[in-house]
Every structure is written in C-alpha cells, then in structure tokens.
Design brief:
With 536 residues, the protein is of the alpha+beta class. Helices cover 32% and strands 27% of the residues.
C-alpha cells in the first residue's frame, strides 16, 4: 500500500538566517549591506581608501605588497557594487554569511563558506542566470542538478568558481555543493518548524543575551575551531585565548553603537578569578570639569607584569632599557623592585585637558592616577626620590600638593595622594581643578559625553571618553611635524613622507567627523564585554 501525504501552506522563511544550520562555526548577519557600503564609499575615509591612485602611490612607501593588495581588493569590491544594478536589490535586505564545519575527510574548512539572502520576489532561474551573465562579462554557467527540487548552478568568473541556488525565496551561494544541500534542507525543515536553525546556534544565542534586538550587524564565531584565514595573525591576540566571540552594531540617531563579547572557555575560568571585579573609579565623571579631552581608567594594570614583559622582550633595546630602569628605580627609591611592586594596585588612569604647542608639535598636558596600597610608604618613597630637587608644598583643604620648581618655577609638575590614589600632574592647576568644588559644568553633564555614555559611571574594568575631533587636530599637527622632519632626509624619508601625506593626514581629516567616543569594558561571569559609542 502506498500512502501519499500532501502538505500545503508551508511557511516562507522569515529571513535568510533560517537557511543556516545551527552548527555554523561563524555567522555574520548584516541588514542592508549595500547602504553601509554606499555610506562608506561617500564618507571622507572611503574617498581616501577607495581612490584608484592610492595603491600605485603606496607602492613607493615601503608598505608590504600583501597590505596593498588587501586595500585594492576592498576598493574593487566596493566600487563594483552599484545601487542601480538589478542584482544589488538583493543586498537591500538582510544578508547572512556563514562558515559551516568540515565534513569527515575535509581539511579546507574556509571552502565551507555559504551566503544567503532573501529574494524580493520569486524569480525564474533562467532570468537570474541571464542577469548574472549580463552583469559580468566572461562569466560562464552550467546546470549541476536539483536538490530537494532546488536548482543548483555552477558559475565561473575568472579564477572564482562558486555555486548558486534558490529555495522558497532564499538565494544561496557557496563554494561546495554539500553546503548548499545542508542549507536547502534547513530551509525546508524551517518551513515545518523543525528546530536546528539559528535558534540552535549557541554563540548566536549567547550573544543575543546582551542584544537590544535592534542591531543591523551581528557577528558570532567559535574561536576554538575557527580555521586559518588571511589576516589571522593581525587578530591573534584576540583569538589566542579561545572561547566564543560576538560583535554587533546598531545605529541610534547620529551615534554608532558597538558591543563586543568574548566568552572564554570553561578551562580558563581561573584567569577571571585572578582579575579584579568591576569597580567605580576615582575620579569619576561627576568629579571632573567638562574641559577634559581624554579620560581613561582601568583596574587591569600590573606594574610587575609590565616590567616582566619588557625585561623578557625579544627586542634587545627594550630589554636593556627595562633593566636600566630597574637599577635606577632601586637607586632612587631605596627599595627593591618587589617592594616597589607591592605598593601599587591595579588601578591606573589618565586625563588630558589640553594639548600645548611647544614650538614644534603639540604635547598633551597629562594627569596620571595610580592605585596604591600603602599611602604612607608611597609618600615616603616620593620624598626619597625628590629629596635633591626644589619642591614647594601647598595645602588644598585636607590634601597636601607637592610641586617641583623647574625652569625657575615656569614648570611645576605636581603630585599628591588622594585616598588610595597617587596623582601625578603636569602642573598644579590640574590638581586644583580636581579638588575644586566650584560651580562649573561637570563632565557627566556635558552634552557630548552624554551622547557616548555607554555606562561610563557604572562599575567597570575599563572606561574611556575621548573628544576625537580635538585629539585628531593635535595628531594632525604632529603628523605635519613628522613630515617636516622627513623632508630633511631626501634618501630615507621619501617613502615615509609620501605615506604620511597620502594616507595618514587624509585619514586624520576624515575621522574628524566623529566628534567623540565612549568605551566601557567589564567582566561578567565568564565573559569580557566591551560597549562603545561613536558620535558624529
């Protein structure tokens, strides 16, 4: 006896992510990528990086051929996609790119890339292939067969060989036939509500625990099994610890918001046990005047680890300098390095309220904060270090400020101890501002600060606020000074001078439209979470 079952009313996938099996190693979901590419093409940075004359110029600067080729590939990709072309409408909706795990016996995992996008309407296969041929001269196609009723075509364009298919309104593209088979199967399974799609992807689900569900770009990857890929060495510091990583972006008015989540593997839980918990820093944004250009705080600093890294550096100049500093530190403080390390905690901070021009290039006016464990011992150490220099003391309320008198008093670097912090400033005025109760606008009330506030007043392990436009102006002046120095060296400075003029200066100009940025990093359970905002 033969039984036939007729099923009607199958659901059309709500999005291209429904075509991706739940065991994907890496997953990128991008809403309207064409709009993002067009925005980049017409941005100041895009105009610099996509200039066709850039690559030939960089060939004379000494930049590696690999980096120049990468820039040229990005330029060609961005300039070839035209919003008026019929195929571009498929990129006006959500596009998903995934990396599927290797099949038994496979060793080239990057070949398992697959892309999926929704078709605005059901299109005949012949029309789709004909459109491809019209758009790309020299493109050849051949019909490979059907899988579950879905046609599969092989296309070749130069050295690029790919497979395309479409199933129930989803267009698929991949490099291996079995990856398309899996995606077609997944689409049909989702039509009858069988689990196993994106809702089963562990890293995607874990990432969306921190999501506001308003993202236009989402990336998730399992670093434990991520294969080699071009440019991996650049990301090695991030990839080395393993675990799972996620990134998403959303646009909120004139601000770009980013979140990066690095969930470490369970075997590395001990690392988190050694790190300090998120904390409230001194000074907080409510204690600072709104004139700050740079405000950075962290409690992940270790003076001992910094010295060990320098002393064991493969660069002989760095290692020699580390031992020289160690000898001088013991000589001036009268303390061993171990005793010195025990005085300081993991907190460190930096304030910059202006850049001063000394006739050559802009110099930041810094104010540094160091967490200390024993204020009395630190005061004794500072007195020992400065005993042979002219120092005057002033009292501001209950705080004693010590100011060196250099250049006849024209320069007065100062320090004081406030609670469990050693404050070292370029001049006494900065410490006076820090301790002042004057009725002035505080940083937390500043409009630009509030635009990029991603929780900068909450307990954190790292936070930063930077007025990007003001800092970039100073960096541009520094770059111009470097150019003037290079112009005196006709033989060695030509390539570097071209690099600065042709790439560095235009990029600094282009970044100026980002007026400020805010960054907050904190450890929660087994994850490091970074929130950032850019205001334009």
């Amino acid at each position: 006896m033969t039984v036939l079952l007729l099923v009607t009313g199958l659901d059309v996938p709500s999005g291209p992510e429904q075509a991706i099996p739940g065991d994907a190693i890496a997953l990128l979901e991008w809403d309207d990528p064409l709009a993002s590419l067009e925005r980049f093409r017409h941005s100041p940075a895009g105009e610099v990086l996509l200039d066709p004359s850039l690559a030939p110029t960089l060939n004379t600067t000494g930049m590696s051929a690999e980096k120049i080729r990468a820039l040229e590939m990005v330029r060609q990709f961005c300039t070839q996609i035209e919003s008026t072309h019929p195929l571009s409408r498929y990129m006006r909706k959500r596009v998903v790119v995934a990396l599927l795990p290797a099949e038994p016996g496979e060793d080239n995992v990057p070949m398992n890339l697959v892309a999926a996008m929704l078709s605005p309407k059901i299109v005949p296969s012949k029309w789709f292939i004909r459109t491809l041929r019209k758009r790309f001269d020299g493109l050849s196609t051949s019909f490979q067969g059907l899988h579950q009723g879905a046609p599969i075509y092989r296309i070749q364009y130069g050295n690029l060989v790919a497979l395309v298919s479409w199933c129930r309104g989803v267009i698929l593209a991949g490099l291996r036939e079995h990856t398309l088979h899996r995606c077609i199967d997944r689409i049909l399974e989702s039509s009858v509500n069988r689990p196993g799609g994106p809702e089963a992807n562990v890293q995607r689900v874990q990432l969306q625990e921190h999501s506001e569900k308003k993202e236009d770009l989402l990336f998730a990857a399992d670093l434990e099994v991520l294969p080699d890929f071009p440019g991996r060495t650049w990301l090695e510091p991030l990839l080395k610890p393993g675990g799972k990583i996620g990134l998403y972006h959303r646009r909120a008015g004139s601000e770009d918001r980013f979140t990066l989540i690095h969930r470490f593997p369970s075997t590395r839980e001990g690392v988190f046990a050694e790190l300090p918990a998120p904390t409230l820093f001194y000074p907080g944004p409510e204690q600072l005047f709104s004139n700050q250009l740079v405000y950075v705080q962290s409690n992940l600093f270790s003076l001992e680890r910094l010295w060990q890294a320098a002393a064991s550096s493969s660069n002989p100049d760095i290692a020699t300098a580390a031992f020289f500093v160690a000898m001088r530190a013991e000589e001036y403080t009268g303390m061993s390095l171990d005793e010195l390390f025990r005085l300081f905690g993991p907190e460190i901070g930096l304030l910059v309220d202006r850049f001063m021009t000394n006739g050559f290039f802009p110099v930041p006016r810094p104010c540094l904060f160091f967490g200390i464990k024993n204020p009395q011992e630190v005061q004794r150490m500072m007195a020992t270090v400065l005993h042979h220099l002219p120092v005057i003391t002033t009292r501001l309320d209950d705080t004693v400020v010590y100011s060196l008198q250099l250049a006849g008093g024209l320069m007065q670097p100062s320090y004081c101890i406030i609670g469990s912090s050693l404050v070292v400033a370029d001049n006494r005025e900065q410490i006076e501002d820090l301790l002042s109760s004057a009725d002035k606008t505080r940083l937390v009330e500043d409009q630009m600060y509030r635009r990029v506030d991603v929780g900068l007043s909450k307990p954190s392990n790292l936070l930063a606020f930077v007025r990007t436009a003001a800092v970039n102006d100073s960096l541009k002046e520094l770059a111009l000074w470097i150019v003037s120095v290079l112009e005196t060296d006709e033989e060695q400075g030509v390539g570097k001078r071209i690099f600065v003029k042709r790439l560095v200066l235009p990029l600094l100009d282009s970044i100026k439209h980002f007026k400020a940025k805010g960054i907050r990093g904190y450890i929660k359970d087994d994850s490091l979470i970074m929130d950032a905002a850019l205001a334009s």
